[in-house]
Amino acid sequence: MKRVSGFIVAAAVITLLAAPYVTRPILAQSSVPAFSKTAGFADQLYVLDGGVGRNLTSVNWLSMLVPPATPIDISTYAHLIKHGDTWMMFDTSTSDVIATIPNGSPTSGVEGIRWMKTPGQTMTAQLKLVGITPADIKLIGISHQHPDHTGNVSLFKNSTVLIQRLEYEQMMAAGRSPQGPSPMQVPGAPITIFERNHPVRLLDGDYDVFGDGSVLLFYVGGHTVGSMVCLVHLKNTGYVLLSGDAVHFRSNFDTRRIPRLERANDENHWLWSVPIAFERVAALMSYYKAELWVHHDTEDYKGRKFAPKYYE
Ligand SMILES: [Zn+2]
Hints:
Elements: H1 2-18, E1 44-55, E2 72-83, E3 86-92, E4 113-116, H2 123-130, E5 137-141, H3 147-150, E6 160-164, H4 165-172, E7 200-203, E8 207-208, E9 215-219, E10 228-234, E11 238-242, H5 250-254, H6 270-288, E12 291-293
The structure holds zinc ion (ZN).
Residues 146, 148-149, 245, 296 line the site of zinc ion (ZN).
Protein backbone atom coordinates (compact mmCIF):
# COMPACT_ATOMS: atom_id res chain seq x y z
CA MET A 1 0.00 0.00 0.00
CA LYS A 2 2.75 2.37 1.04
CA ARG A 3 4.59 1.50 -2.11
CA VAL A 4 1.53 2.20 -4.24
CA SER A 5 0.85 5.62 -2.68
CA GLY A 6 4.55 6.42 -2.97
CA PHE A 7 4.28 5.63 -6.64
CA ILE A 8 1.20 7.85 -6.99
CA VAL A 9 2.98 10.77 -5.29
CA ALA A 10 6.02 10.28 -7.51
CA ALA A 11 3.80 10.16 -10.60
CA ALA A 12 1.99 13.34 -9.50
CA VAL A 13 5.28 15.15 -8.92
CA ILE A 14 6.59 14.08 -12.31
CA THR A 15 3.34 15.20 -13.97
CA LEU A 16 3.52 18.60 -12.26
CA LEU A 17 7.16 19.07 -13.19
CA ALA A 18 6.46 18.09 -16.78
CA ALA A 19 3.29 20.20 -17.09
CA PRO A 20 4.80 23.31 -18.73
CA TYR A 21 6.29 21.15 -21.48
CA VAL A 22 3.22 19.07 -22.23
CA THR A 23 1.64 20.09 -25.51
CA ARG A 24 -2.07 20.40 -26.03
CA PRO A 25 -3.46 18.47 -28.94
CA ILE A 26 -6.73 20.21 -29.81
CA LEU A 27 -8.64 17.66 -31.83
CA ALA A 28 -7.96 14.49 -33.71
CA GLN A 29 -6.26 15.02 -37.06
CA SER A 30 -9.25 14.05 -39.07
CA SER A 31 -11.51 16.85 -37.90
CA VAL A 32 -11.39 20.59 -38.23
CA PRO A 33 -11.49 22.59 -34.99
CA ALA A 34 -14.63 24.61 -34.50
CA PHE A 35 -13.36 27.54 -32.51
CA SER A 36 -13.22 30.13 -35.28
CA LYS A 37 -16.25 32.03 -33.95
CA THR A 38 -14.37 33.14 -30.86
CA ALA A 39 -10.90 33.36 -32.36
CA GLY A 40 -8.61 36.19 -31.40
CA PHE A 41 -6.36 37.98 -33.85
CA ALA A 42 -2.69 38.13 -34.59
CA ASP A 43 -1.68 41.80 -34.95
CA GLN A 44 0.68 41.64 -37.93
CA LEU A 45 1.90 39.17 -40.55
CA TYR A 46 5.10 39.86 -42.51
CA VAL A 47 6.59 38.00 -45.46
CA LEU A 48 10.39 37.74 -45.45
CA ASP A 49 11.86 36.88 -48.85
CA GLY A 50 14.42 34.08 -48.74
CA GLY A 51 15.54 34.09 -52.37
CA VAL A 52 14.99 31.31 -54.88
CA GLY A 53 15.85 27.72 -55.63
CA ARG A 54 16.96 27.36 -59.23
CA ASN A 55 15.98 24.06 -60.87
CA LEU A 56 17.68 23.34 -64.19
CA THR A 57 14.97 20.88 -65.10
CA SER A 58 11.40 20.38 -64.03
CA VAL A 59 11.90 16.63 -63.59
CA ASN A 60 11.17 16.76 -59.85
CA TRP A 61 8.08 18.84 -60.44
CA LEU A 62 6.42 16.66 -63.05
CA SER A 63 2.73 16.14 -62.50
CA MET A 64 2.50 19.81 -61.66
CA LEU A 65 1.40 20.97 -65.10
CA VAL A 66 4.95 22.01 -65.81
CA PRO A 67 6.34 20.98 -69.21
CA PRO A 68 9.19 18.43 -68.94
CA ALA A 69 12.76 19.78 -68.96
CA THR A 70 11.67 23.37 -68.24
CA PRO A 71 13.95 25.27 -65.86
CA ILE A 72 11.96 26.41 -62.80
CA ASP A 73 12.64 28.77 -59.94
CA ILE A 74 10.92 28.03 -56.66
CA SER A 75 10.57 30.68 -53.98
CA THR A 76 11.30 30.34 -50.28
CA TYR A 77 10.05 32.53 -47.46
CA ALA A 78 9.86 33.01 -43.75
CA HIS A 79 6.71 34.43 -42.17
CA LEU A 80 6.87 36.72 -39.18
CA ILE A 81 3.85 37.05 -36.88
CA LYS A 82 3.30 39.64 -34.14
CA HIS A 83 0.86 38.69 -31.42
CA GLY A 84 0.73 41.29 -28.66
CA ASP A 85 4.34 41.63 -27.50
CA THR A 86 5.33 38.22 -28.84
CA TRP A 87 7.11 37.61 -32.13
CA MET A 88 6.81 34.28 -33.85
CA MET A 89 8.20 32.92 -37.15
CA PHE A 90 6.68 30.23 -39.32
CA ASP A 91 9.59 28.63 -41.18
CA THR A 92 12.99 30.29 -41.46
CA SER A 93 13.90 29.92 -45.16
CA THR A 94 17.27 28.75 -46.47
CA SER A 95 20.46 29.38 -44.51
CA ASP A 96 21.60 32.99 -44.65
CA VAL A 97 25.12 31.66 -45.32
CA ILE A 98 23.98 31.17 -48.92
CA ALA A 99 23.97 34.95 -49.36
CA THR A 100 27.78 34.88 -48.94
CA ILE A 101 28.31 32.40 -51.80
CA PRO A 102 28.47 34.12 -55.21
CA ASN A 103 26.56 31.50 -57.22
CA GLY A 104 24.42 30.07 -54.45
CA SER A 105 24.56 26.61 -52.91
CA PRO A 106 26.16 23.77 -54.84
CA THR A 107 23.70 21.31 -56.35
CA SER A 108 23.84 17.57 -56.61
CA GLY A 109 23.70 17.21 -60.38
CA VAL A 110 21.24 18.46 -62.92
CA GLU A 111 18.21 17.52 -60.84
CA GLY A 112 19.48 19.35 -57.77
CA ILE A 113 18.27 22.76 -56.65
CA ARG A 114 20.70 25.68 -56.48
CA TRP A 115 19.52 27.94 -53.66
CA MET A 116 20.39 31.58 -54.07
CA LYS A 117 19.86 34.70 -51.99
CA THR A 118 21.20 38.23 -51.83
CA PRO A 119 22.39 39.93 -48.62
CA GLY A 120 19.09 41.84 -48.62
CA GLN A 121 17.22 38.52 -48.53
CA THR A 122 18.81 37.35 -45.27
CA MET A 123 16.61 37.06 -42.21
CA THR A 124 18.76 39.45 -40.17
CA ALA A 125 18.55 42.19 -42.81
CA GLN A 126 14.77 41.92 -43.08
CA LEU A 127 14.16 41.71 -39.34
CA LYS A 128 16.20 44.92 -39.06
CA LEU A 129 13.79 46.61 -41.46
CA VAL A 130 10.98 45.61 -39.09
CA GLY A 131 12.99 47.01 -36.17
CA ILE A 132 13.77 43.76 -34.36
CA THR A 133 16.64 41.28 -34.08
CA PRO A 134 16.72 37.44 -34.03
CA ALA A 135 16.87 37.64 -30.22
CA ASP A 136 13.32 39.08 -30.20
CA ILE A 137 11.80 35.95 -31.75
CA LYS A 138 10.19 33.83 -29.01
CA LEU A 139 8.59 31.06 -31.07
CA ILE A 140 9.37 29.34 -34.37
CA GLY A 141 6.80 27.07 -35.98
CA ILE A 142 8.48 24.63 -38.37
CA SER A 143 6.39 23.25 -41.23
CA HIS A 144 8.88 20.38 -41.59
CA GLN A 145 12.53 19.46 -41.28
CA HIS A 146 13.86 20.26 -44.77
CA PRO A 147 16.67 22.82 -44.86
CA ASP A 148 14.84 25.35 -47.04
CA HIS A 149 12.49 25.76 -44.03
CA THR A 150 14.85 25.18 -41.08
CA GLY A 151 17.88 26.93 -42.60
CA ASN A 152 18.14 29.64 -39.97
CA VAL A 153 16.87 27.99 -36.80
CA SER A 154 20.35 28.30 -35.24
CA LEU A 155 20.11 32.07 -35.70
CA PHE A 156 17.25 32.22 -33.19
CA LYS A 157 18.98 30.89 -30.11
CA ASN A 158 16.36 32.23 -27.67
CA SER A 159 13.39 30.82 -29.50
CA THR A 160 11.39 27.69 -28.81
CA VAL A 161 10.76 25.59 -31.90
CA LEU A 162 7.24 24.20 -32.33
CA ILE A 163 7.46 20.99 -34.30
CA GLN A 164 5.49 17.76 -34.58
CA ARG A 165 6.91 15.02 -32.36
CA LEU A 166 6.85 12.56 -35.28
CA GLU A 167 8.90 14.93 -37.40
CA TYR A 168 11.40 15.68 -34.66
CA GLU A 169 11.94 12.06 -33.72
CA GLN A 170 12.47 11.04 -37.33
CA MET A 171 14.84 13.95 -37.81
CA MET A 172 16.92 13.10 -34.76
CA ALA A 173 16.86 9.32 -35.21
CA ALA A 174 19.97 7.19 -35.62
CA GLY A 175 22.41 10.00 -34.98
CA ARG A 176 21.45 11.93 -38.09
CA SER A 177 22.18 15.58 -38.18
CA PRO A 178 18.77 17.21 -37.99
CA GLN A 179 18.51 18.17 -41.63
CA GLY A 180 20.15 14.98 -42.88
CA PRO A 181 22.53 14.82 -45.80
CA SER A 182 21.55 17.61 -48.10
CA PRO A 183 22.62 19.57 -51.16
CA MET A 184 22.06 22.56 -48.90
CA GLN A 185 25.28 21.69 -47.11
CA VAL A 186 27.38 24.62 -48.21
CA PRO A 187 31.05 25.26 -47.47
CA GLY A 188 31.39 27.40 -44.37
CA ALA A 189 27.86 26.66 -43.12
CA PRO A 190 27.46 24.95 -39.77
CA ILE A 191 26.92 21.22 -40.26
CA THR A 192 23.94 21.26 -37.96
CA ILE A 193 21.65 24.16 -38.70
CA PHE A 194 19.13 22.94 -36.13
CA GLU A 195 21.12 22.19 -32.99
CA ARG A 196 20.21 19.08 -31.02
CA ASN A 197 19.95 21.11 -27.84
CA HIS A 198 17.78 23.87 -29.35
CA PRO A 199 14.67 24.31 -27.15
CA VAL A 200 11.67 22.57 -28.70
CA ARG A 201 8.01 22.02 -27.88
CA LEU A 202 6.96 18.72 -29.40
CA LEU A 203 3.40 18.70 -30.74
CA ASP A 204 1.08 15.73 -31.09
CA GLY A 205 -1.41 16.96 -33.67
CA ASP A 206 -3.01 20.40 -33.98
CA TYR A 207 -1.90 23.22 -31.74
CA ASP A 208 -3.34 26.59 -30.74
CA VAL A 209 -0.15 28.63 -30.31
CA PHE A 210 -1.52 31.53 -28.23
CA GLY A 211 -4.56 29.73 -26.83
CA ASP A 212 -6.96 32.18 -28.52
CA GLY A 213 -7.38 30.66 -31.99
CA SER A 214 -5.35 33.43 -33.64
CA VAL A 215 -2.46 31.23 -34.80
CA LEU A 216 -3.16 27.54 -35.32
CA LEU A 217 -0.74 24.85 -36.41
CA PHE A 218 -2.38 21.92 -38.17
CA TYR A 219 -0.80 18.53 -38.68
CA VAL A 220 -1.12 17.44 -42.31
CA GLY A 221 1.71 14.94 -42.97
CA GLY A 222 2.15 13.97 -46.62
CA HIS A 223 5.33 15.71 -47.74
CA THR A 224 7.09 14.51 -44.57
CA VAL A 225 5.87 12.40 -41.69
CA GLY A 226 5.11 15.42 -39.45
CA SER A 227 4.42 18.27 -41.89
CA MET A 228 2.32 21.19 -40.63
CA VAL A 229 0.52 24.19 -42.08
CA CYS A 230 -0.09 27.45 -40.20
CA LEU A 231 -3.38 29.35 -40.07
CA VAL A 232 -3.15 33.02 -39.09
CA HIS A 233 -6.23 35.07 -38.18
CA LEU A 234 -5.94 38.80 -38.95
CA LYS A 235 -8.53 41.50 -38.27
CA ASN A 236 -8.58 43.08 -41.73
CA THR A 237 -7.16 40.33 -43.91
CA GLY A 238 -9.07 37.39 -42.47
CA TYR A 239 -7.59 33.89 -42.34
CA VAL A 240 -4.32 33.19 -44.15
CA LEU A 241 -3.18 29.58 -44.52
CA LEU A 242 0.59 29.20 -44.91
CA SER A 243 1.19 26.03 -46.92
CA GLY A 244 4.65 24.90 -45.85
CA ASP A 245 5.26 22.08 -48.35
CA ALA A 246 1.82 20.48 -48.07
CA VAL A 247 1.33 22.14 -51.46
CA HIS A 248 4.18 23.06 -53.83
CA PHE A 249 2.48 24.84 -56.72
CA ARG A 250 -1.08 26.09 -56.90
CA SER A 251 -1.60 24.18 -60.14
CA ASN A 252 -0.78 20.82 -58.58
CA PHE A 253 -3.08 21.56 -55.64
CA ASP A 254 -5.99 22.68 -57.80
CA THR A 255 -5.70 19.51 -59.88
CA ARG A 256 -4.67 17.28 -56.93
CA ARG A 257 -1.59 16.09 -58.80
CA ILE A 258 1.26 14.71 -56.72
CA PRO A 259 4.65 16.14 -57.68
CA ARG A 260 7.27 13.54 -58.53
CA LEU A 261 9.57 14.67 -55.73
CA GLU A 262 7.12 13.26 -53.17
CA ARG A 263 8.00 9.78 -54.37
CA ALA A 264 11.42 10.10 -52.76
CA ASN A 265 9.67 10.12 -49.40
CA ASP A 266 8.83 6.43 -49.42
CA GLU A 267 8.61 6.23 -45.67
CA ASN A 268 5.67 8.58 -45.88
CA HIS A 269 3.55 6.40 -48.12
CA TRP A 270 3.10 9.35 -50.43
CA LEU A 271 0.45 7.71 -52.56
CA TRP A 272 -2.17 8.08 -49.85
CA SER A 273 -0.61 10.57 -47.44
CA VAL A 274 -0.11 13.42 -49.93
CA PRO A 275 -3.76 13.37 -51.11
CA ILE A 276 -4.91 13.34 -47.47
CA ALA A 277 -2.76 16.42 -46.83
CA PHE A 278 -4.30 18.11 -49.90
CA GLU A 279 -7.79 17.37 -48.62
CA ARG A 280 -7.02 18.70 -45.17
CA VAL A 281 -5.71 21.93 -46.67
CA ALA A 282 -8.89 22.15 -48.77
CA ALA A 283 -11.06 21.52 -45.69
CA LEU A 284 -9.29 24.25 -43.72
CA MET A 285 -9.66 26.73 -46.59
CA SER A 286 -13.32 25.97 -46.89
CA TYR A 287 -14.14 25.99 -43.17
CA TYR A 288 -12.22 29.13 -42.28
CA LYS A 289 -12.71 30.82 -45.67
CA ALA A 290 -8.93 31.03 -45.61
CA GLU A 291 -6.69 32.31 -48.37
CA LEU A 292 -3.97 29.76 -49.21
CA TRP A 293 -0.43 31.11 -49.69
CA VAL A 294 1.63 28.56 -51.63
CA HIS A 295 5.17 28.77 -50.31
CA HIS A 296 7.27 27.57 -53.26
CA ASP A 297 5.12 29.04 -56.02
CA THR A 298 6.90 32.22 -57.17
CA GLU A 299 3.77 33.38 -59.02
CA ASP A 300 1.69 33.02 -55.87
CA TYR A 301 3.69 35.62 -53.94
CA LYS A 302 4.18 38.10 -56.76
CA GLY A 303 1.52 40.51 -55.62
CA ARG A 304 2.18 40.20 -51.89
CA LYS A 305 3.58 42.80 -49.51
CA PHE A 306 7.06 42.12 -48.17
CA ALA A 307 8.64 43.29 -44.92
CA PRO A 308 8.69 45.94 -43.59
CA LYS A 309 5.15 46.17 -44.98
CA TYR A 310 2.73 43.82 -43.28
CA TYR A 311 -0.78 42.39 -43.25
CA GLU A 312 -3.01 43.14 -40.31
ZN1 LIG B 1 10.36 23.26 -49.21
